[in-house]
Every structure is written in structure tokens, then in C-alpha cells.
Task: inverse folding
């Protein structure tokens, strides 16, 4: 396990690390001790839409002269969401913002993405608040503003959105936009990990193994690494990294501690993510 730390430059991943697009829940990890994260799943209502779009792009089958069936489907989806957004539905406003950012069913427009995400966020939609925070954090369509990013991440996290809770954990762990506070970072990672957020589970396990934000706890660290391994989206390299972390822990644990960690992982049940409904 690597224990050193590196200075992170904003919008620049660490060597060997990866950042996936903000609309896919992508994040920079704050320390070199955190393994490279697997791409998070897209928001539920866009998952199949974006996956299909990416597949078409990868195969080079887009015909610019004639819209493909998927492009027509995207346009129809956008028009439906746009109509609902104009009618004042907060969730639809957030969807429209994402579609403008990705250029799905419409032309890519960060200003329009910002406008619609702001509208959804102000009406209390947690996904809109979280994604608006990403825009501010990464300077997409707006100047970088850590204070605004923190504000919107916090609003979404307070509603129980796991991805926003994980983002707050990263901000406090890194000290970007807020004073560095490992105890707060640990608390937010725990909230997200309890909802089965894989990246938060890894971050939580790493902090517990090193005693960051609290005392070292190899049993809990082992449990969270084991739970993170259950995520089917993990790449082979990530699986290997997590298994190495578990092996590192087991060399420092007694047999009874390892057995207790396995017992806790087997008995663990995720909490349901239930953002409060917009007013």
C-alpha cells in the first residue's frame, strides 16, 4: 500500500489516476493512496441512453448525413424532457442540463447546461445540485468557484445523495474549497459508503487503514475493501488493487480480526438512497 501523498493540481489527475466526466459522477481522488476509481454508473434515467450513444461512437457508425435511429431517439428524449422542464418539473430540468452538457438530442451547450442545472438545483433537485457543483468545481461553462461547488454539493448531500456525499468527502480530505478536515471527510465517506457507493467505500477503507480522521481500524477497513470488491463494474486492474490492499491488511491482522471482518461484510446491508422530494 502506498502511503505517500502528492500535491494535486486542480483539473489534473494524478499519475496513474483517472477522472471520468462530471455527469457520470467522475471525481479526482485526493491522495496517491487511493486506487484508480472505476467509472461510476450514470444517473439512472440516462444510463441506457448514454451507454448506447457511447457504443455507437466507439464503432464509428454515426452517419452525419442521415440521423441514426439512436440519434432520433435521443432527440425525442430531449424534446420530452425539455417540455417537462418548461412546465417546471425540477427533475426534468436536471435531465435537460445533462443532455446539453453531453450534446445528446441537442447541440452541446455548457451555458444551457448551467442554466437548466441552476433551475433544477434551486428547486431542490438533488442530482441537479450535485451536477451543478461539478460545473463550478471544474469550471465548465462558468468560472471555477470552490465555494459554490461546496455549497451545492452540501445541499445535495444533505438530501442523502450518495455521490454528493462522496464529493464532500473528497473536498474535506483535499482541503479544496474548505479547510482540510479528515474527520469530516471520514464522516461523509461513511454516509456514501453506507449507500453502497463503491468509490466512497474504497476511500473510507483507505482512511481507516491509515488512521486518517480517526483511529486505525483494520477490521472495518477490511470490511469496506471487501464490500467494494462486490461492484460488478470494477476493471481487472482495480480488482487486483483492492485484493492487494486486503492482503496488506491481513498481514497485520490476527486470525480472529480477519474472521470478524468477513462476518461484518457478510452481514452488511446497504441503506437506500432517498433524496428529499423538491418542494
Result:
Amino acid at each position: 500500500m502506498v502511503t505517500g501523498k502528492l500535491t494535486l493540481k486542480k483539473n489534473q489527475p494524478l499519475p496513474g489516476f483517472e477522472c471520468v466526466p462530471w455527469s457520470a459522477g467522475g471525481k479526482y481522488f485526493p491522495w496517491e493512496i487511493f486506487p484508480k476509481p472505476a467509472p461510476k454508473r450514470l444517473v439512472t434515467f440516462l444510463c441506457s441512453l448514454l451507454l448506447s450513444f457511447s457504443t455507437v461512437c466507439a464503432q464509428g457508425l454515426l452517419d452525419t448525413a442521415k440521423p441514426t435511429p439512436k440519434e432520433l431517439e435521443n432527440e425525442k428524449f430531449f424534446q420530452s424532457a425539455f417540455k417537462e422542464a418548461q412546465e417546471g418539473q425540477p427533475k426534468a430540468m436536471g435531465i435537460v442540463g445533462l443532455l446539453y452538457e453531453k450534446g445528446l438530442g441537442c447541440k452541446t451547450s455548457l451555458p444551457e447546461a448551467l442554466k437548466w442545472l441552476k433551475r433544477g438545483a434551486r428547486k431542490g433537485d438533488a442530482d441537479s445540485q450535485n451536477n451543478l457543483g461539478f460545473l463550478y468545481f471544474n469550471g465548465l461553462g462558468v468560472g471555477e468557484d470552490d465555494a459554490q461547488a461546496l455549497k451545492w454539493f452540501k445541499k445535495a448531500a444533505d438530501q442523502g445523495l450518495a455521490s454528493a456525499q462522496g464529493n464532500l468527502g473528497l473536498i474535506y480530505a483535499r482541503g479544496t474549497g474548505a479547510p482540510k478536515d479528515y474527520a469530516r471527510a471520514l464522516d461523509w465517506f461513511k454516509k456514501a459508503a453506507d449507500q453502497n457507493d463503491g468509490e466512497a467505500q474504497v476511500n473510507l477503507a483507505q482512511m481507516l487503514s491509515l488512521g486518517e480522521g480517526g483511529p486505525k481500524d483494520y477490521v472495518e477497513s477490511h470490511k469496506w475493501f471487501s464490500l467494494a470488491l462486490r461492484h460488478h463494474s470494477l476493471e481487472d486492474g482495480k480488482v487486483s488493487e483492492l485484493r492487494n490492499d486486503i492482503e496488506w491488511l491481513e498481514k497485520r491482522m490476527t486470525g480472529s480480526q480477519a474472521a470478524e471482518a468477513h462476518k461484518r461484510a457478510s452481514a452488511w446491508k446497504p441503506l437506500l438512497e432517498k433524496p428529499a422530494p423538491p418542494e
